[in-house]
Amino acid sequence: MELSLRERQKERRRSEIYEAAIALFKESGFENTTATEIARASGVSRGTFFNYYPYKEAVLLDYGSLVVKSLEAEAGRRLDRGQPPLDVLYDIWSLLADENTKERDLFPPLAYEVMNPNPERAQTAYRALRLSGVVELILRPLHDAGELRSDLSLARISNLIADTYLLVALRWSAYGTGRSLHDELRLSLDLLLTGALKR
Amino acid sequence: MELSLRERQKERRRSEIYEAAIALFKESGFENTTATEIARASGVSRGTFFNYYPYKEAVLLDYGSLVVKSLEAEAGRRLDRGQPPLDVLYDIWSLLADENTKERDLFPPLAYEVMNPNPERAQTAYRALRLSGVVELILRPLHDAGELRSDLSLARISNLIADTYLLVALRWSAYGTGRSLHDELRLSLDLLLTGALKR
């Protein structure tokens, strides 16, 4: 599909605002960055910023969505190469841990967005960050081979695993724990997979 | 410890405000009830209400805290009677499901409070609603008998189980699912316990 000149201009403007916002978040922290500052840094008015992103957290959703999409592509490549699904899941979890460890401050506001009391915002966030979809993609071969427990659907098992990721990473990002996020995530994934596989 | 007259009066006032607030929440919903209405219904000024409860959600924490304490007492009685720990956990989960099903509208704002982006509010909520403490109490005999996996501490396993309860119940309360909350909770508990027990 060919984009019109106007659409391409909108796309470019959006990506300029996105880049300026993420740079500011990384520099000064998410909470300390205002919409006015993002607008100034990307050379648009405050009103224009809100045309592209109705709230500040929406910029983070674009960031999270890129992360999830790149993980999904990576998972697909690994499965296509014949890597065993469980190994793929551990590797993807480890890549996620890398990204979260690097961008520790961006994670809590992203997680809170998924759990926003406003159902529309929560659903928007949930759709942008379909981590459970990545888990489902990875576990599907095991499901089709009858290796997963059958009293819970593949979608529910995938949700449980993705939700646990969210809470373990949130606890780690917001409060810190003695262990690295890698270890925290690996151990909780281990427990869940032991529970998810047929004995 | 003897309470002074002044302290007893404060306790009574607090419980009057609590009863009036919970009655209003059940009648009109949490979101639709204002601090002014709670104050009016309990015969105090708005300022007095905020002296007892600094925010509306704090009233819900008292409610949740009572629920958790009564479950903890029930779990203790069942363990003392010699009921096997895993049975106790399933029964306690079932009692929780009853309470949540009955008070479906009170649960989401309570869960959001535990995940409040303001760390002080989140910690206050977490301390008021120590569900992971109840799980720990129930699983301790299994832990001491060496029946739980040893790469995660009892506290972390208990946290994972309590967190999963939170998210499964929140999803159910806020969005509904095809299954009863009883079934949702039992199935996810089953998966987690399979993962938590030594093979």
Automatic annotation (TrEMBL), chains A, B:
Residues 34-53 bind DNA. InterPro entries: Homeodomain-like_sf, HTH-type_TetR-like_transc_reg, HTH_TetR, Tet_transcr_reg_TetR-rel_C_sf, TetR_C_44. The keyword Transmembrane helix does not apply. Keywords: DNA-binding, Transcription, Transcription regulation. Residues 11-71 form the HTH tetR-type domain. This is TetR family transcriptional regulator.
